[in-house]
Structure formats: C-alpha cells, structure tokens
Design goal:
331 residues, globular, single chain
C-alpha cells in the first residue's frame, strides 16, 4: 500500500467493516473524521486505562494486542470496555493482510465483549513489520480498585495457569520449521495453541470475588520479572518455591532447545495474585476449570528469594525478555 494515512475507501472497506462489537458506554466510536472517542459511566464508577505495543512478533499481532491490554485492565479488577488502536504498517503489507489483522482484533474483542472505539492506521517507512499499539479503557466501582502494590507480608502468592504460554506460542509459530527438525509435529501444534490461554479475565474476576489484595499479569520478563515488580511495588520480600511454579513440558523443551530461561519468558495468560486465602483461591480457580498454584509467600523485609531444594537465589530487577533472543536470530 502507499505511504501515508490509509485512504477513506480502504478504511471503510477493510477497517470499519470489521468493527461489530458494541458497548452501551461508548457514545462516540470509530468513524471517518472521528479523532476522539466518548464514554459515559454510571455514578460511582471510575475509568481504568492501560496501553501496550506489540513489537516482538508479526504473527497474530491483532489478537495479542487486544488480550495483553485487556489483561492489564482486568488485573486492576476492572471490566474492559473498549480500545483505541494505532496500527503502523510497512509498504509491503497488502490491504488483505491489513484486513486480516483487523479481523483478529475484532474476533478477540467479540470474545471479550470489548468495542473498538477508534484509532489510527498508517503505512510508513518507519517500520519493517506491522506494529500495533492498543490503549484500553475499563470501568470499576469506586473503592474496588486493585493494584500491584497491594501485597502484604504473610500473604500467599498465587499463580494462575502456566508460565511462558505466550512466549512458547510465539516461538512455536515463528520458528516452526526449525523446531520440526527436532520435535514431533503434535508437540509443536500444542505449543502453538497455547495462545488460547492468553486471557486472564476469568481468573481476575475470581481474584476480585475472593478479595485478593494484589493482582499483576505476567508479561515481559516472565514470572521472575512479575514477582520482582509485585514485591517492589508492595515493598515486601518474597519466598518462592521454584518447584511450585507451573510450567508446561512444551515450554521446557522449546526453551532448552533455544537456551532460554522459561522463568524470564513473556507469560501473558498467567495472573499473579497475593491474598490471605491462597489455597481457597486455587480451589475456586479449579472449579472454573483454571489451573492455579500457591507458589510462595510475601514476607517482611526486602529479600526476594527463590528456593529450589537447598539452593536459594535472589531475584533481580527484570531484564530484556528471553523472547528477543530467539526473535533476533535469523531463519
């Protein structure tokens, strides 16, 4: 497509035509010439806003962008309402490919009941793959807002699902040909399908119902990064049992092949929680068909320790995600 703003005819044909999910809170949504969206909330409700880009992969960029931003909103205890998106495309992208990306966005929005409220679409030489940034808006009753900083000494640290789901799925898709030279096809297919677990909205609702005091979705930097961020925000220490952290065998195999640390791999789909009743939370997760585990405790002080049998290691601030080591490799 030509450099510059996407034409009105293409916008109508391949962007706006994809937007079908609507929310009553949205008074002004996406349309030609509309530079802003307008929302109305009920008395006693407040806005929660989050923004995230997708830069680590060009595959399923629309789906990933929606889920990651919706997860940020949900981890505050709020209900996602809508998104504003910015889509930057290289010259080589066709209208058909752009329409496919918008289809992914709408499919994810339909599943989560989120409205695409507006945004910007442009073809530019500044990028060499599609880059999408999504800003999400959610709502929550005033006084019910949760944050990462709510963990208290003595509380259980709970994790939903398994670490590395997003990173494993991305690597399995991006490096499928190489991986098939080493692993059976059925294993790689299972790994690719880990993207079905990306939403943490169901477990976030359970966390709110069970009155956890802190929630944090596990994204870049993996579980070790998320644990550090929760502890730093809450000004607490941690004692984490490495063997209690759930991880799929496919993640272990793929990480070993590429010499990656699965505990530092991007992990959208996992929700970290802190609460007084960790094992009760796990039981409620299980009732909803969601795997969960108590992986440790928050403690007084500032030591953040991961214990593996008799070995103790100290967590460090998050570094570059392990995913980038693979995505920078050719082939």
């Amino acid at each position: 497509m030509k450099i510059g703003k996407v034409s009105e005819s293409i916008l109508k044909r391949s962007v706006f035509s994809q937007i079908k999910t609507k929310r009553k809170e949205v008074l002004v949504g996406a349309g030609v010439g509309e530079d802003c969206a307008a929302l109305k909330l009920e008395n006693g409700e407040i806005f929660v806003i989050s923004t995230d880009p997708i830069t680590g992969t060009a595959k399923d960029v629309g789906k990933l962008a929606v889920h990651i931003t919706a997860n940020d909103i949900a981890s505050s205890g709020a209900e996602p309402i809508g998104i504003m998106l910015s889509l930057l495309l290289p010259e080589w992208v066709t209208e058909r490919e752009m329409k496919e990306i918008m289809g992914q966005v709408e499919d994810a929005c339909h599943v989560l009941n989120i409205q695409i409220m507006g945004g910007h679409t442009e073809v530019t030489k500044a990028v060499n793959q599609p880059v999408m940034t999504v800003t999400g808006v959610g709502k929550i009753d005033q006084g019910s807002l949760l944050s990462t900083r709510g963990a208290k000494p003595g509380q259980d640290i709970i994790l939903s699902k398994w670490i590395g789901l997003e990173g494993t799925s991305i690597i399995a898709k991006e490096k499928e040909k190489e991986l098939l030279n080493r692993f059976p096809k059925h294993m790689i297919e299972r790994a690719k399908e880990f993207d079905q677990y990306l939403s943490i909205i169901p477990e976030a609702k359970i966390g709110v119902e069970m009155k956890v005091s802190s929630m944090h979705d596990v994204t870049e930097g993996g579980i070790f990064g998320a644990l550090w961020e929760m502890a730093e925000a809450s000004e607490v220490g941690l004692e984490i049992d490495l063997k209690e952290i759930p991880v799929k065998q496919e993640t272990i195999e793929i990480c070993e092949y590429f010499l990656l640390n699965p505990y530092c791999l991007i992990s959208s789909g996992s929700l970290l929680m802190a609460g007084d009743n960790g094992y009760e939370v796990v039981r409620e997760l299980k009732k909803a068909g969601i795997h969960g585990a108590v992986i440790g405790k928050a403690v007084k002080g500032r030591d953040r320790v991961v214990i593996n049998d008799n070995e103790r290691r100290y967590l460090e601030p998050p570094k570059s995600d392990e995913l980038y080591k693979v995505m920078s490799q050719e082939g």
